[in-house]
Every structure is written in structure tokens, then in C-alpha cells.
Amino acid sequence: MAQRRAMRVSTPRWTDFRLWLGLALVVGAMFAGAHLLSSDGDDVTVWQATRDLPEGAVIADLRPVTVSLGDAGDDYLAANDVVTGRMLWPVSAGELIPRRAVVAGDLAGARLVTMPVDPLRLPPDLMPGDRVDVWATPSERAEALLVPQLIVPGVTVASISEDTVGIGGQIAVVLTVAEADVAEVVAASRGGGLDLVSVPLSSQRPRDGSLVEAADALS
Questions:
Q1: What pLDDT score does 182 carry?
Q2: Does residue 174 have a pLDDT over 80?
Q3: What is the pTM of this model?
Q4: In which element (H, E) is residue 67 found?
Q5: According to CATH, where is 3.90.1210 located in the chain?
Q6: How far apart are CA 162 and CA 55, in angstroms?
Q7: In the chain, what are the helix, strand and coil shares in percent, each to the nearest 5?
Q8: Considering only Cβ atoms within 10 Å of each terminal Cβ, which end of the chain, N or C, has fewer?
Q9: Mean pLDDT of 68-74
Q10: Where are the alpha helices (DSSP H) in 97-215?
Q11: pLDDT band at 201; cut points 50, 70, 90
Q12: Which secondary structure element, helix H or strand E, spans residue 25, and what is its range?
């Protein structure tokens, strides 16, 4: 009679490729799950426009949407913010509402003044919605001013031309100015060079009687 061979069950060895492959799959699944859980923490609920909101329009017709914005989450109006005021610049239907696109109060008394500014005399990262101080420096022929003078503080940038214009290669910057300040701003633009000095968010305070206030003051 032929002798039967004993059946032996082989135990897994650390050198078995299949064992390492199984461990790699388990560890990979753990890391993938952890990544998904951590990414959920970046989701925020913000306001989205359901129709086109032109400049100056009363803000309305918004809906809350949950999106992942990462570090940019604070740049948009959260859905738990009470939103009132008007649009400082247009926002199209479907777009999220930037904080700096909304201003409190009535814009009826404000004016949009176009200022010719040398590209080297304004902040390089200037954007619509930023607040700036307007300074004027006299030209060689001007006699009214001997040193740079603050013309109007804390005005809001409405728009910025992408192309330079004029012989000096200036950029057209449109500022939202209170009606009472228009004459002084226009006179300064004709009397010498202009400088737009950025006002950091930490330094922004609504001026008494100002028609345009920072939207972050609502939060």
C-alpha cells in the first residue's frame, strides 16, 4: 500500500509577497479614510447668488451652499451671517458672495470717481473692494501743496483697469467716494501725482458719516 503523505498547513511568512500586499491595502484604506474625514472639516456653508446682482443692487435672492474653500473660506459671506446692504461690484448668478462685495447703507449719495494712477504708486495686489487712502503729491509747478497730503482716507476701490492709458502709462482706478469729497478728490488728481495707500483689514474702521462701510463689520 502506498503511504499517504501528511497534509501540512503552511503558516504565512513575513517574506510572503501576498502578506505584504494585504498589509499595504489595509494601511492605504486607513489613510484614505482619514483623508476623507479631514477634508470634511474644510467644508463651509456660504451664500450663493441665485440671479445676477449688478453693482448697487440691494442684495437679495441668495441661497446657502456647502463647499470646500480651504483657507479662502473667510473671504465669503457665511450662511449664518445676516446679509444686508448693496452690491459694491457685480456678482453673477451661481457665484459665491465675497465679503468685500457687499457694503452697508445707501449708495445713493456716493459717486464713482476715476483716478489716473501710476502703476508704481498703488499696491501691486490691489483689487476691487479694497480700501485705500488717497494721497496727493504736488507737481513741480504746483504751489498749493509742498508735501504729500492725505486727500481722503478709507475709500473703496470699485474697479481697476487692466490696461495702462495715457502718455505716462497710468492706470484708471475707479473709487467710490462720498459726494462731499468729490471736488477735493478731482482737484487732487489734476494738481499732481496720486498715491493709493492700502488700508489693511485690521485698520479699517467706518468713518463717521461714510456712505460705504466695510462688509466685514456685519460679522
A1: 92
A2: yes
A3: 0.52
A4: strand 62-68
A5: 42-103
A6: 19
A7: 25, 35, 40
A8: N
A9: 80
A10: 182-191
A11: low
A12: helix 17-39
CA distance 151 to 42: 42
Number of residues written out for the chain: 219
Q: Which CATH architecture has domain 42-103?
A: Alpha-Beta Complex (3.90)
Q: Which residues pair with 194 in a beta bridge?
A: 136
User: Alpha-carbon distance 217 to 203, whole Å?
Assistant: 12
Predicted pLDDT at 151: 92
Give the cell for residue 7.
497534509
DSSP string, 27-54: HHHHHHHHHHHHHGGGEEEEEEESS-B-
Chain Cα centroid distance, residue 151 = 26
- Which range, of 103-107, 153-157, 191-195, averages the lowest pLDDT? 103-107
pLDDT of residue 48: 92
| pLDDT at residue 49 tops 60 | yes
Sign of CA dihedral 129, 210, 115, 132: negative
Cα(192)–Cα(145) distance, rounded to whole angstroms? Answer: 9
> 45-77 burial by CB neighbour count: b if 16+ within 10 A, else e?
ebbbbeeebebbeebeebeeeeeeeeeeeeebb
The three cell numbers of residue 142 are 504746483
Phi, psi of 132 (to 5 degrees): -140, 155
Instruction: State phi, psi for 45 to the nearest 5 degrees.
Output: -105, 120
Look-up of cell digits 510572503: 16
Q: Which of 89, 123, 111, 110 is nearest to 215 (CA)?
A: 89
Neighbouring residues of 60: CB distance < 8 A, sequence distance ≥ 6: 53
